[in-house]
Write a structure and sequence with these properties.
two-stranded antiparallel ribbon; 9-stranded mixed β-sheet; binds 3-hydroxy-5-(hydroxymethyl)-2-methylisonicotinaldehyde; alpha/beta; globular
């Protein structure tokens, strides 16, 4: 079985970061090892949430794993609380990276042209340096703009997206994938760029005109799970995009949905079936 280390916060309530990564990666058949970087009462879209930083635990936990000879097929990072924490995580990656280790970075820090309240531009630049050591990075357009010093635009064309992808690959990442990319009216999806081959790829779904919290984390977790299960990168991204779109649609139809996250639990059986079908191809 493949073993993934995922490093991000645990928001006790909120359906994001570790509380979605752990169930989704497990459901897709890989072992999920978690390194919680902080415990929050809820994610940061609630008022008055509590936070306990755990970044001083990263080094001793990693040292223990080293002493046990533990290795990882992938290291997947998400929301990280501070610049110092990003540096500590970079060291951990360098320490545990082997020949076949996939380093997957989701620089979760903003959306809709803005950084989340806890972050500033210096933090975004620090995340850019983390993306520089990634095999696959999956920022949304907002995050990509902050990391590359590009003007954020509400409306754009494919040339803008291609340029943004090339700037991301200029940070050092092998494959950059932008999420939340709309290449035509009524559609949304992903567009990626593989630096070595110079190949662009894109995948679009019908756009559901509603935004829910945590969908970026769901996308990333499924991409990691699908890739480790044996899908090609393109197919893993397609499965993630389809799963995220389906989950948003199901959530929208639920009159009792919570405001703070999506009903990703409801769509797990579909995900597992689709993964099995995809692996037969
Ligand atoms: O979904 C990204 C995320 C992860 N963790 C925490 C967050 C957010 C987004 O706001 O607040 C604590």
């Amino acid at each position: 079985m493949k073993r993934v280390l995922t490093i991000q916060d645990i928001s006790c309530l909120g359906k994001c970061s570790l509380t979605v990564a752990l169930p989704l990666i497990s459901a897709m058949g890989s072992e999920a090892v978690i390194l919680p970087t902080a415990v929050l009462s809820t994610h940061t879209m609630f008022k008055n949430f509590t936070v306990k930083d755990l970044s001083d635990q990263i080094e001793p936990i990693a040292a223990h794993w080293k002493s046990e000879g533990i290795t990882f097929d992938a290291i997947y990072t998400g929301y990280l609380g501070t610049e110092e924490e990003i540096e500590t995580v970079k060291k951990l990656i360098q320490d545990f990276r082997g020949d076949g280790t996939l380093v997957f970075i989701d620089p979760a820090m903003g959306d809709n042209g803005r950084l989340y309240p806890a972050f500033n531009e210096a933090y975004a630049k620090r995340n850019a340096s983390l993306c520089g050591i990634g095999d696959i990075i999956v920022p949304n357009i907002t995050e990509a703009c902050f990391m590359t010093g590009t003007e954020y635009r509400e409306s754009y064309d494919e040339a803008y997206v291609r340029e943004l992808l090339q700037k991301l690959s200029g940070l050092g990442a092998k494959t950059a994938v932008l999420t939340g990319v709309s290449l035509s009216e009524g559609k949304t999806g992903v567009m990626g760029y593989e630096a070595e081959s110079g190949r662009f790829f894109s995948y679009q779904n019908d756009r559901i005109p509603i935004a829910y919290h945590g969908t970026g984390d769901i996308f990333s977790s499924v991409a990691v799970g699908g890739y480790l299960a044996g899908l090609t990168l393109d197919r893993a991204m397609q499965l993630s995009a389809d799963y995220t779109a389906r989950t948003i649609a199901v959530t929208m139809d639920n009159p009792r949905k919570p405001w703070y996250g999506v009903d990703f639990e409801t769509t797990i059986p579909w995900l597992v079936n689709s993964l099995q079908e995809g692996l037969k191809e």
